[in-house]
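Hi R.,

Here's the chain you asked about this morning:
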Amino acid sequence: MSAPEIAIRRGSLYLGRALYERYFAGLETVVLLRRDDDLVILPVRFAAAGGYLLKRRNGAGDRVVTAADFFRSNGIEDHEEHHLAGSWSTDHAGLVVAGLFVR
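And here is the predicted structure, written out as tokens:
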């Protein structure tokens, strides 16, 4: 399987249905963390624990996470657009997007 495609645009994180089903199936929230230059997307098993909502974007089952505050505070402006690959890390227990915050 090729690396999952992830998009960031207008302060939101976009995940395709296949990626959502593979790593976050049945979940309603995720936590976004910056670890050095990488973005780490962690699954949240209990919505009461907090995090960002994984909203259903369309009938195909794609998801969107509105997180403009997180991206702006980490140097990613609303007008920027990124198309990235991620990989699952057992060490981080989440999906890692390497090098997103490299400037």
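One quick note: Residues 5-97 form a domain with the At1g16640 B3 domain fold (CATH 2.40.330).

Cheers,
M.
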